[in-house]
Each structure stands twice: as C-alpha cells, then as structure tokens.
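Reopening closed ticket. The problem is back. First fold of the pair:
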Amino acid sequence: MTVCLFTLFDTPVGSCAIAWTERGVVGIHLPEGRERDTLARVLQRFPDAREAVPPPAIQCAVDEIIALLSGEASDLSTVVLDMEQVSPFHRRVYEVARAIPPGATSSYGNIAARLDAPGSARAVGQALGRNPFAIVVPCHRVLAAGGKLGGFSANGGIVTKLRLLSIESARAKGPSPMFEGDGEFGFDTALAVAHLRGSDPKLAQLIDSVGPFRMRLRRAPSVFGALAEAIVYQQLNGKAAATIYARLCALFPHAHEGPTPAHILRASDEKLRSAGLSGSKLLSLRDLARRAGDGGLPDLAEIHRLENEEIVERLTQVRGVGRWTAEMFLMSRLGRPDVLPVDDFGIRKGFAVAFKKREMPAPKVLEKYGARWKPYRTVASWYLWRAADQASE
C-alpha cells in the first residue's frame, strides 16, 4: 500500500502544503484563509496522509516553490510528480503547461494546439481546473482567449491568479533601460496593483481612494548624473534646488547632458560655489566625481546586474549619499519594483494615515508589515506618499 505523507510550509503568500509518496509529489495546495483550513484541505483529499519531515528531494521542491513565490529565480523542472492517479490526457496537458516559463503566459487554445487537439481548449481548461500540482504545474500562467484571465480554482480565485502572475512578472522582466528617457516602469503596474489589493485589504482601500498608479521614471544621462542632481537637491525645496542645479549645468555650456566627472574635478572651488553649492555639497560632488573616474561608481551596464542591497551599499560609500538617496535612485531612476524606504517621513506618515494609527510606525515595524507587499513595495510606497499628501491638503 502506498503511503502518503505531507507537510505545511510558509511562503510569502501564506501557508502552503505539499503531499508526496515514494514515487514523487502527489499534491500541492496554495493557502486557504487560515493554516488550519489548508491542513483540512489536504486531509480532505488525502484522508490517510500523515504529517512528516520532507526527504531531501521534497525539501528541494519546497525551497524552489518558496523562492518562486518570493520573486526569486527558481527551477521547478526537476520536481518529480506522482501521476499514477492522473488520466493520460491530463498528464499531457500538465507536461505542456510545465514548459511555460515564469513571467510568460499561454492560453487554453495554444495548449490544445500543442497537444495536436485544436478543438479541445475546453477540455484543457477542465484539466487545469483540476490541477493537483499548483505552482509546479503553473496553471496560473494559462489564460483564456484574447488574454482574458479565465478562472482559477485556488482559494482567492482571480485575485490569487493575478498575485502569482505579478510576483513572476517582476522577476522575469527585470531591469529596463531607465536612462533612455522618461516613461513607464519595466514591470506590469496593473498586475502590481492587483497583487497589492489581494495581499492587503487596507491598502486596497487606499488604492481605491487614490486611483491609478501614476508614478513616472525620470531620465538621467548616467549614474553619475543622477546622483549629482540628487546631491544638489538634498535638503532644499524643489524650486531652490532646481535653480542651483540649472546654474551648475550652465557653468559647462558644452555639456548638453549636465556636467561630467571630469568637469567637476577640473573646476575650481570658486567656480562651483558660484552656482550656489554649499561647501558640503561641493565636497560630495567631488567625491562622487573621483569615484566615477576611478571605477568606484558602477556604470549603467554594471548597475543593472546588481541587486538592490548591493546598489545601496555601493552608492552609500559616496560622501553625502545616504540610504534614502540610494533608495530614491532605485525607485525613480532604475524603476526597481520592490523598494520600501522605511525611514522616509512621508511613507511613515502615509502609513499612519491610511491605517488609522495615532503615531507613525517605527521603521522596523513598517519593514515587517510591508513584507506582505513584496515584490511590489515601490508601488505600495507611492500610494503611501499619496496618503500623506491627501492628509496635508
């Protein structure tokens, strides 16, 4: 007699479950409303199953599922499935669906065509609706005709489907060339907003109040140019900072995209101070220029290969560039989707307003609560800023 075992495990979307036999995985369950409901769902399907510590192969599958749901690179292609109780047609559907990579989608009709059964789109949908191997067989990546979402049998329905797609989209699209001009983000902001709605009802209320996500990216000729402008703007109101930065650029009339590191290093203190720079900002600009010149500052090609924390660590080595400045760079220049500046006054104030708190949260509290917004904390941050703005009107 085949013995069925199972375990529950935590993921960024909640408590999931995996069941297995000696032949491989027989079931994966996405979270129900509560952990005990997920447990009940497992036992409903496998009444004789007992909880156990996963063997190495199953633990590897668990780790890869957690990684994928965290927005990280993941390879589920090697997970062995026990399909002894699965019909031959369903097996073929699941095999084709497993070939859809994270960040991509297919349709019921396309899968039917791949099976050389073009009239069986409805049967494909029924097979995926009974998919016992959620995530490993990524039925959430299969859409209806015309790109419509179609159904989803897991708890939460379409909201859960959107959430899974949004997590994968953020990773798959990766960084976009944000220095080629002002514009939109390199990830699907509609999926991001849907993900936030599904992950936090209170934030969903704020989204309804504010309306569509309208944050735009700002062009800069280089990493140096973006940080030079950021240093000038620090601790000044927008109009005063813009005036000083315009004067700085005017000192070098042939530099159509702003001063270069060589310009800053060759200019005298008197010339730079004439633009209105403070002594501290002058020193910061010179340090920035030196680091750009000797390779200490990453260029565009390198910075797109770095993770967020690596970028913060590199940039904060520059005099006058703190974590907040680096995080603003990640958000407004690189368009990174998952940044939450927990020390930012406006974000903390917006959280207090939107969540009806008497006091602004401590950074650690905000960091812990905001984990549920991954991998789209940049979008959540923008909405919190809008909440702070509304409160000040």
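Second fold of the pair, where the issue appears:
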Amino acid sequence: MTILPTKIYFPAKVWATIAFIFGTAPLFSQTPLYFPPKTGTAWQTTPPASLGFCPERIDSLYQFLEDKNTKSFILLKDGKIVLEKYFGTFVQDSVWYWASAGKSLSAFLVGQAQDEGLLDIHDKTSQYLGTGWTSAPPAKEDLITLWHQLTMTNGLEDAVPDDNCTDPSCLTYKSDAGTRWAYHNAPYHLIHDVLEEASGVSLNQFTKTRLLDRTGMKALWVNHILYSKARDMARYGLLTLAQGVWDGDTLLHNPQYFYDMTHRSQDLNKSYGYLWWLNGQQSFMLPGLQLVIPGEMLSNAPDDLIAALGKNDQKIHVVPSKGWVVVRQGNDAGYVGPGGGQVPIYFDNDLWKYLNQLDCTPVATTEIFDNEPVVSVYPNPAQNSWFIESSVLPEKIELFNVLGVRLLWLENTVMVVAEGLPAGTYWMSIQVAGKQVMKQVQK
C-alpha cells in the first residue's frame, strides 16, 4: 500500500496571514531564546551550577567523551552555552564534517525553496532532473516525488555497491515509491541537484543567502557533505529549537512544513521525519536493515528529542522540552550495533546516561547507570548454539537475518540453536525485564 502524506500545504503568503491572525508563539517552548550575534565570537553563557550541574559529573561526561574519540562538544540551554569542550588538538575554530547530519539541514533548505515557490515537495522529481534520472521503468520513476526523497521512501534499490552513485544505472527499481522505507544516500544527494535546478544557483550560494548569512553560520558543501565549526552546528540546532525563526527573522514561513519535518512523516519508519530522526516513537528502522525494531530509538533520551545523525557519530540533538541543543563532532565512538557506520545510535544512548546524571540531585548509582539490562551473547561467532548471559531470564528472543526476516522466536530460554543456519551475520532481539536489547551475532 502506498503511503501518502496527508498534510495540506499553502503558499508562504497564506501562512504569513495565518501567523499574523493567530500569533507567532513557538510550538515547542514559551521560554525566551537567546541568539548569539551574527559576527564575532561573543556568545552568552549560563553557569552549569545555575542548572544544578555537579562539577564532578561534568568531568565524568568529558572523560566519557574523550574516551569515545570526541573532538568537540557543546550543550546549549535556551540558546546560551552551558558546556563547551574541545579535545586533543581541536579548538573552537577547527572545522569538521557533518556527514549525514547535513541531511537535516538540507530538509530545511527544501522548505525554504518551497516558501519561495521554487518547488513543491509533491512535485515529481523528474520535473527537475528530467525523465530517465533513474533506470526504473518510466511508469515507476514517474511515481517518485520530492516528498519520497525527503522521507527515504523513493522505492529505489538501496543494496547497491556504491550508495553514493547518482548515475541512472545505479538507481534501480525495487518497489513503488511510498511502499518501502530504506536509507539511501544517492536519492538524497539528488535533492541538492533539485535545489540547484529550481533556484538557478549553486547549492553553496543557496545555503549562504537563505540560511548562513541570516544566522551567522559559516559552512561549505563539498561533494554533498557540509563542513563547519562546532558552533555553526549549534547555531543550526538553535534555529531548529526556534522553529525556523532567528532572533525575529523568519527563515521558514510554513509552520506545517516545519512540523512535518520534525515529526513522523510516514508509518513505515515511525522515527523519521523529513531527513530528521525522531525519538519517543513506537518503533524505528535503521540503515541497511528491513527490520522494524519495536520501542523508541534512545531509551535514555527525552521522548521529544529530534536528531541530525551522521557517520562516525556526528550529532545535533534538539530537545524542545528542555530547551537543549547538544552537538558532538569527532571520530567513530567505537560502538557496533544496528545502523552500522551510517547512523550509529548506541553512543547516543550512553551519552544521555551522562547527560541525565549532570543534575546534582542525589541518586543511587544504579539509577544512573543501570537503565539498560546487561546482556551478553556467547560464543560469537557460534557454530552450534548461542547462549544468552543475563541476570534475568529473557522473556523473548527473536533472530533476524540482515534483510530483517525473522527466523526464530523463542520464549523463556537462554539458548538459541544456530545449527542449520547459513554462515553469516544475524540480529538477535532479546527482551529482558521489559527492555529490548539488540545484538549482532555471527554464525
């Protein structure tokens, strides 16, 4: 069944009239936000102690970040810097790549282009790229719209040798647009081509005039990857916290587009908006797996967290309920799990253990660190059977292949028979004490 968007879109002038009539109070928070000057390095701060943060717990957070190959870390509260730390040779002026965290900024640019009447996200992609931009049958290519590109539901085959290849020969038909969610870089990259075709200027020029100059950001696209300093990522997180309004300057006029960008866009992957990741949903999918994983992505993070996530753990976390923006740049934090290297999320969950414990309110150590059940699987690789080691008997164990097909369902056991299964990689979902733990296992 094809999943179609249900929201109604109006021209920017109509939204401006609606905003004038009903007011422009932010949907996320009523707390006044601070915006740093567009030039210079001045940025107001909030003392960590004023938020009840313990110095020793800040130190523990910084040690964790350093151990996990972090280069820069920033925490904003209502726009003001609470924590800012650079590691190794990295300094405030160091430039790093966003990786796929830049996808979320691209979604904002598309909204701006729609504001200006340069495009409509329900337009067919071929309207901008020409027919034959894929090697799909013409009738199938004709189904793909910009909305499908924003939501990763374009239906093109994602299991390809080069995920970044945008040649028509690399873009083959897998299913009808809107019927399958799959994380695929190449169709996303072509959003940039659409923006250039629709606007008549380069991607860097469009980004500079519509977003960078109006927020004080400095950034540059190189081969579809955005590069900037950590504070520039923080500025974009703050712009998102402010729902597209920078210190009274409305950069994104259509509140419906902003809402849809930062909320569930379709029911295939409930934790995906328009190139933004969403916490607090009933289930989620990750790159490389046609597996719907029950539960929210980050059990330790606030339910209203939205995230721009990139390879090697580039992060922008926006938490409206707390007025927080969290930025992390660096190398791969070293976690292995669902999402692979494209969108790793295990580091995020551990990071939120430390963020949750910053408050000096006395809590037991178990309350801080034991939010997740400790589960291990051995031997791994296995020839005959895997055994689950846990302080609590698992209620349910499911085994999936890399395509997300469930092969086994077991209850109240600690042994999973591997004999008879082909050699390869599998995902094991283990439910312990009401929590779900995902483990990658080998046969």
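Update: turned out to be a display glitch only; the data is intact. The longest strand covers residues 70-77. The radius of gyration is 22 Å. Please close again.
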